Amino acid sequence: MYDALLKTGLIKQGLELSEDKIQLLLDYHALLVKWNKAYNLTAVRDPQEMISRHLLDSLSIIPHITGERILDVGTGPGLPGIPMSICFPEKQFTLLDSNGKKTRFLTQSKIELKLTNMTPVQSRIESFEAPLFDAITSRAFATLKDMVDGSIHLLKPDGYFYAMKGIYPEGEIQQLDDRVTVVDCFALHVPGEDGERHLVKIRKV
Q: Which of 4, 21, 37, 110 is most buried when burial is the number of CB atoms within 10 A of its CB?
């Protein structure tokens, strides 16, 4: 059932993934469902709902992502970081979250799904240090300003922030300062979801 839901969603999004990648996404979904019962990793309880609200939502940004080294800030249970790691095995992903339960789940997912290109890190963004990244993604950060203020020190000059938002965040865009420039804002299509979704692409000047 979940297999058909995911495949139908991918077709609607115009995304072509190999059977291997689709199976890995389903294996990740199964892990998320299993661990969520004990560890409360996400407020979404319904496994069917997880396909659209978590997997297809994360996959909706695939056509827009560039860069080789990517940091996923506030990744929670690995969204969009794990689906991205599965779809882009040639890229390196660092998944950052301050919550111990969630990073334990990320570590287990890395082992079980054999995601050698994914590194889980438990840390607050302010205290995390690493070589600079080509891009930073976020699905659940409070505001664009918070995302930029908290993580701009980790982004290369001319690197990109990819911020996943609901409705078009006009007010948040206006709060950004001249350290960054908004390059584009893409309307995202997420099958099974009625609400608006957008991806804001921001360049570090």
A: 110
Q: Which residues pair with 10 in a beta bridge?
A: none
Strand partners, 95: 72, 120
| Model pTM score | 0.97
Residue-range domain boundaries for the chain? 2-204
CB 84 within 8 Å of CB 136: no
- On the 0-12 / 13-18 / 19+ scale of CB atoms within 10 A, 170 is exposed
In order along its 205 residues, the chain shows pLDDT tens digits of 999 999 999 999 999 999 999 999 999 999 999 999 999 899 999 999 999 999 999 999 999 999 999 999 999 999 999 999 999 999 999 999 999 999 999 999 999 999 999 999 999 999 999 999 999 999 978 899 999 999 999 999 999 999 999 999 999 999 999 999 999 999 999 999 999 999 999 999 9
